[in-house]
Amino acid sequence: MKKSITTKLFLVIAGLMTLFFLALAIIINQFLPSYYENSWISNISTDLEHIANSEIDLDLLLEDLLSTYGGAYEITNMPEAAVQIGKGQNSNNVTVTTEQDGISHRTFSNKYGVTFEIFTTKLADHWLVYQVPRSSVDTAVEIFSQFFAVLVLVGILLSLVASQLLSQFITKPIKRLTQTATRMQSHDYTGSNTGVQEDEIGVLSGALHSLYDELLQNINSLKDDLKRERTLDIMRKQFVAQVSHELKTPLAIIGGYVNLLEDELYESVEERDSCYLAINHEISQLDTMVKNLLELSKLETDPFSVKPEPVEFNAYIGDLFSRVTTMINSFELDVTSHIQRCTDIVTLDPARFEQVIKNICINAIEHASGAISLSVSEQSNQIQVTVFNEGPSISDVDIDQVFLPFFKNAQKKSGSGLGLAIAKRIVEAHKGSITVRNQDTGVEFTVAVPIK
User: Fold this and answer.
1) Which residues lie below 8 Å from residue 211, measured CB to CB, with a gap of 6+?
2) Which residues is 388 bridged to in the sheet?
3) Which residues of 366-441 form beta strands (DSSP E)?
4) Does residue 371 sit in helix, strand or coil?
């Protein structure tokens, strides 16, 4: 199993800190004894120089010297040469180390192997000889070395703990990011990118969330497109089936009349002419259906087939209602109209909008059992045109299907069932809406289009 990033980071940090402490221990062990010895000798030499140059009580200064460094002193009037040899001791055991500022320093080992540091300085008319065993320095260095060794071990242990805590602290957001990525991969993530630190990991987390959101949107978009494509495929098949059905009936009628004429089965010229008229009627119906199909296809595939333009609406709607009223009266139906004055200029395609109103009125004529009323008003920055016909209401099952191509309910007397579908596509191209609802005495269609 591969090591986690926490383990790797812990090993790196712990290794570096351990190497640091070990290097520090080697350096101190190498240089501490000589540094401490030199400092100790320098301090003693400084204190002796101070004693030699001081005018205060000599005994008090010497007692202070002994209390600080230990050892012993002697004040003598021996000749300088004898004093410098070390009170007559064998010169082979004496090593001269320094002689500076009137302080002579020597290292002496007696026959027992005990090493002394001997300092000699000139007083006013005497010599001060001060000797101190070197063991005090060696003991101090040894104690300090032991103490520092313990400190190094403690430091290494603490560095291991600190390395563990630090590695966990650093890798915690990375682990959280890894878990998030894993959940994203399994599509089991619903969190957000809140509470993330403002550093490179935070930036990476934000980028990952943005990428995930974008991918999720693309996936959902692809799913919607696939679903829409499947729906369109089903609708296309249904449409083909409906077209085939709608064409089959008039073609069958035409075929029947043609066979009748070919076999000369008619009994009179009037009956023959009646067959020709019926054939002509069915051909006209087929022609209308084909034109409507082409119109519907054009509206669905070419949104630019609707070309809105500024129109003087009040004059336009008055003329349109006048023509529609004449059309309705031709079917011996009563019609009333109410025109509320609206905004003078409205952006719409005048020919297409007239087609919408006429298709709705034709549908009203086919289902009307009484009067038809027309009205226009302006509401919420929209133009609303309402067509109401007295007659039977639309069933709850059918009311959601009236705008589908080829829809015909039980009361449908004629037509191809494409008029309302075409009207809906034209209104949608105007970024408007068309609705239908049942009233107490009939059915009401409402067309709403934006003014601009």
Assistant:
1) none
2) 373, 444
3) 372-379, 382-390, 433-438
4) coil
* Biggest CA-to-CA distance, the chain: 177
Alpha carbons 226 and 213: distance in angstroms, whole number? 19
Q: Using CB atoms within 10 Å of the CB of residue 387, give its burial: 0 to 12 exposed, 13 to 18 middle, 19+ buried.
A: buried
- Reply yes or no on whether the pLDDT at 193 is more than 70: no
Domains of the chain, earliest start first: 5-151 (no CATH), 305-450 (3.30.565.10)
- How far, in Å, CA of 237 to CA of 197, rounded? 55
- Reference 439, options 398, 397, 388; nearest CA is 388
3-class DSSP assignment, residue 149: helix
- Cα–Cα distance measured from residue 449 to residue 432, given in angstroms and rounded to the nearest whole number: 4
Residues 84, 92: Cα–Cα separation, whole Å: 13
What's the CA gap between 430 and 452, in Å, rounded?
10
Separation of alpha carbons 60 and 78, rounded Å: 23
Tell me the whole-structure pTM to 2 decimals.
0.48
Identify the top-confidence range among 4-8, 109-113, 159-163, 316-320.
316-320
The model's pLDDT over 97-134, given as tens digits with 9 standing for 90+, comes to 556 667 888 887 777 777 888 888 887 778 888 888 88
Q: What's the token pair of residue 352?
A: 């297409």
**321 in Cβ contact with 374 (< 8 Å):** yes
For the CA atoms of 22, 26, 28, 33, what is the dihedral angle to 10 degrees?
A: 150
